[in-house]
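Bench log. Compound arrived from synthesis this morning; before running ITC I wanted a structural hypothesis for how phenylalanine sits in the protein. Inputs:
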Amino acid sequence: MLTESPREQWGSKLGFILAAAGSAIGLGNIWKFPYIAGENGGSSFIIIYLICIAVIGLPVLVGEILLGRTTQRNPVGAFKALNGSKFWAGVGGMGVVAGFLILSFYAVIAGWSIGYIYQSISGDFFQYADPAKAADHFVALTKDVVWIVSYFALFMIITMSVVYAGVQKGIERGSKIMMPLLLLLLIFVMIRGITLPGSGEGLKFIFNPDWSHVNGQTILIALGHAFFTLSMGMGAMLTYGSYMSKKDSVLSSAIQIVILDTFIALIAGVAIFTSVFAVGLDASGGPGLIFHTLPAVFTIMPGGQIIGTIFFILLTIAALTSAISLLEVITAYFIDEKGWSRHKAVIVFGTVTFIIGLPSALSFNVLADFNIFGKNFFDLVDYLASNILLPLGGLFIAIFIAYVWKFDKALIALKDGSEKIFNKNPLIITLWQIFIKYFAPVLIFLVLLSSIGVL
Ligand code: PHE
């Protein structure tokens, strides 16, 4: 059953860009990107990553937003509208499921971030100048079931209240406030990092190419991260695109989203590594960099309590605008396909996501010894969603556009709102065609093979 009431739309193109950039910019940029860049050769990795974003990320992102804009539907409805087969509706359904899974563990990490705002304000972690002690403190906190579950619940409630308020009044309005604030706070933290004595080492670490670290695996890591950081392959961008007007350009919006996302990842890298090096700590902290190494950095550096508080506030904002887009996918599906009201969909599925996320939250304490395929529940859900479902979704989107919907038809749809750009640069059409027909399917397939251990 389809709803009768007119579908919501963004109030402006800027509103869409900020909301979509909000989805893209998240823990992936501020937590994940700096440490994987650090582990994989700094700027040589960044160069490969930029190529992956241009060759795979941008073309598939354009395609995903276009599917939503053309059909004005959620992921399942979009595939159904263009192709009647159950298989393709199932691909959309896979996106909705991936949305649940990602949100369920993403909100757990985001909860820690809120917890750490309090830790900074209260000064609790400012007794741990030694990262090993800061790490012990973090482990002790995550072992506390009440601590981890309550911050997880709090984060879910905040996410739900924004989505509950609707596309324009909730998501768009929220993004217009939060995104500029995020940028401002991050630039502030970066300037503090750069002005610390000894920060040059950090800049060298992140910008000096070191090609000895680069191999086939590096390329696959870069490509895999491109999906996660651009929120691609599970219908978040498709759903946001479905609220877009035909007058606005999908192509120029996608380019702006990619630029903003990349820019924020780079600033985050500079902010974090200049600070880490300036206080003489180890930059190869891996996934623990933010919650183990940074608290120690803030303890040592002058003004660290303020910078620490600001840092965890901005991390929470970044995570929030991403979580909102994840919940919106599920919500849009139940509104479009099942005729539910937005309010009912948000309350029911926000709660369901919280319940699905509980085993992830408990993976750090009660369920710590419970392993499936050698991974705890949290790692398993993260791996399944980020390394399998997202690339698989991206692969299907590329194949669908190129060979099922057919490139020529997609191109006609893409021209709506982008005529001027195409008339000026006809080469773009050829590039999009080559990338979406050949490069994207082949390269994404390789990423998938490597994820399941075949490569
Ligand atoms: N792009 C978000 C980040 O970088 C994560 C995300 C993935 C959000 C998929 C929505 C969909 O943190």
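What the model suggests: Residues 21 and 257 are 5 Å apart (CA to CA). The mean pLDDT is 92.
ITC booked for Thursday regardless.
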